[in-house]
Write a structure and sequence with these properties.
The complex is a heterodimer of chains A (about 375) and B (about 130).
Chain A: E1 5-6, H1 10-15, E2 19-23, E3 26-31, H2 35-44, E4 46-50, E5 55-60, H3 64-71, E6 84-90, E7 96-106, E8 109-114, H4 119-129, E9 135-138, E10 143-149, H5 153-158, H6 163-166, E11 173-178, E12 181-186, E13 195-201, H7 205-216, E14 221-224, H8 226-235, H9 269-278, E15 283-289, E16 300-303, E17 306-317, E18 322-329, E19 339-344, E20 347-354
Parallel strand pairs in A: 1-3, 4-14
Antiparallel strand pairs in A: 2-3, 4-10, 5-8, 5-9, 6-7, 7-8, 10-13, 11-12, 12-13, 15-18, 15-20, 16-17, 16-19, 17-18, 19-20
Chain B: E1 11-12, E2 17-22, E3 25-30, H1 32-38, E4 41-45, E5 52-53, E6 58-64, E7 68-72, E8 77-82, H2 85-88, H3 92-95, E9 104-107, H4 120-130
Antiparallel strand pairs in B: 1-2, 2-3, 3-9, 4-6, 5-8, 6-7, 8-9
Classes of the chains: A alpha+beta (about 375), B alpha+beta (about 130).
Chain lengths: ~375, ~130
């Protein structure tokens, strides 16, 4: 049919009724049933996502930690073995090359989980800037990745894995068996809910996928696609590269201060500091539509008839029953309560800037058990 | 994809709209194929009553969770009714696209503007060509 690549779960997904879409050069499920139902499953029970299209880039050797400290906005040398954290790769102008999660797998080794659309770019960037004592290896093709998300995800994982993997704290990971196959499991996710990301060898992906769906059925698990992945991450106000982030955006404009060591010596640190000192021209803000409609990336944000910014992402929020979105506006307009308009095909929809995330805590499905 | 419903008593446009002529009045909506392609519909921009449109003009738009689709006038005429129920319940377009999910009624000029519309058999082919 198309020339798009397949993940190891492609055949299994078709068997489960997936409707496919092309994304980052891969054919992936957009939805299996209805986007709103899959979204609700993650908020109320559990959802299972194939995110094997994402890339895994390993750094190993005596200079691996130095390489990571030089490339990432947070020092990897302060991340203990078994720890995972979110950080950014920046260019010399302080713009974002990619947003990644960093896993410290050994005293002298770590890997980055990177966006599918940026794998080649990130590899070239890392190879260019890593010292020779850091071996850079692309593990993307051999690695499958499943995301198990929702308040029931711990219960589901418990049915196929040892307690040690289940009871890890957030932002920790460990290796162990899942459904009898070697895996690396981290307590992380991109939905705002409790959950796990499960890495395994590509040939084992289908066994894990089917086992999780089978054992998770009693807990209400549903396979979920990219449609729900986007509405969930938007409710959690998590950025998506290519929308909220690109190589001209400072992470500080995107509200990612927590993930940038301001006094760091990484590539782009000086530019980030300089841009902050000069004053940012825009800030990322969350908004809710007051009038009926749906905001989309690229729609203009106006105030009193004047263009003041642009929407970077927008969608209906199934949990809130309203339309939400993220937009870049001048920093003074980013204050919650500010009233703006969003232009939808020439019509001005009233909107209000709000605190983010849009959905948090219990409503985001955070588990009340360990 | 599940079975696509294409009633035999309607005419169709190549933009996946259906047309039911009642004398000079024409009721329009989107087809089962269109609503399946769009996914869950969350908002409808209805045309304003009193608007005059020529065939092919933009009549409104439909937002689903993941995308937005334009609605085009399949015939020329004046919008005399718009289905306000879709403002509160846009999902009617998914649930009952040929019944309660009707979108608008146009008053046409009486000339034979329907010659370009597709008969059910031709529309069935048009759908089949685009399905896998």
């Amino acid at each position: 049919m198309s020339a798009a690549r397949h993940t190891p779960l492609h055949a299994a997904e078709l068997r489960h009724g997936a409707r496919m879409v092309e994304f980052a050069g891969f054919e992936l499920p957009l939805q299996f049933s209805k986007v709103l139902e899959e979204h609700a499953a993650v908020r109320e029970a559990a959802g299972l996502f194939d995110v094997s299209h994402m890339g895994q880039i390993e750094l190993a050797g005596p200079e691996a930690l130095d390489a990571a400290d030089h490339l990432l906005t947070r020092r990897a040398s302060t991340l203990g073995v078994g720890g995972v954290r979110y950080a950014l790769l920046c260019n010399e102008q302080g713009g974002v090359v990619d947003d990644v999660t960093v896993y410290r797998t050994a005293p002298d080794a770590l890997f980055l989980c990177v966006n599918a659309a940026n794998i080649e770019k990130d590899l070239a960037w890392i190879r260019k800037h890593a010292p020779s004592g850091a071996r850079v290896t692309d593990r993307s093709a051999q690695t499958a990745l499943l995301a198990l998300q929702g308040p029931a995800s711990a219960a589901v994982l418990r049915s196929v894995a040892a307690e040690a993997l289940v009871s890890q704290r957030r932002f920790r990971f460990a290796r162990g068996e899942v459904a009898g196959r070697d895996a690396l499991v981290s307590r992380t996710g991109y939905t705002g809910a409790d959950g796990y990301e499960i890495y395994c060898a590509a040939p084992d992906a289908e066994i894990l996928f089917e086992a999780l769906l089978a054992k998770g059925a009693a807990h209400g698990i549903r396979p979920c696609g990219l449609g729900a992945r986007d509405t969930l991450r938007l409710e959690a106000a998590l950025p998506l590269y290519g929308h909220e982030l690109d190589d001209t955006t400072s992470p500080l404009e995107a509200g990612l201060d927590r993930f940038v060591e301001r006094d760091g010596a990484f590539i782009g640190a000086a530019a980030i500091r300089e841009r902050a000192r000069a004053g940012h021209l825009r800030a990322l803000a969350g908004f809710v539509l007051v009038d009926r409609g749906v905001a989309r990336a690229g729609y203009e944000v106006t105030q009193a008839g004047h263009r003041v910014g642009v929407v970077t992402s927008g969608a209906p929020s199934p949990t809130l029953g309203k339309s939400i979105g993220l937009a870049y506006v001048p920093p003074p307009l980013a204050a919650p309560g500010t009233e703006v308009d969003v232009l939808m095909r020439g019509r001005a929809m009233r909107a209000q800037i709000v605190e983010t995330p849009f959905v948090r805590g219990e409503r985001a499905g955070k588990s009340t058990s360990a | 994809m599940s079975e696509t419903d294409i009633p035999d008593d309607l005419l169709y446009s190549s933009e996946d709209e259906w047309v039911r002529r009642e004398g000079e009045r024409v009721v329009i909506g989107i087809t089962d194929y269109a609503q399946q392609q769009l996914g869950e519909i969350v908002h409808v921009d209805l045309p304003e009553v009193g608007t005059r449109v020529e065939r092919g003009d933009e009549l409104g738009s439909i937002d689903s969770v993941k995308t937005v689709a334009e609605l085009y006038a399949p015939v020329s005429g004046e919008v005399v009714e718009a289905n306000e129920a879709l403002a509160e319940n846009p999902e009617l377009l998914n649930e009952d696209c040929y019944g309660d999910g009707w979108i608008a009624v146009l008053q046409t000029d009486g000339g034979d503007d329907d010659a370009h519309l597709l008969r059910p058999s031709a529309y069935r082919k048009h759908v089949a060509e685009r399905s896998d």
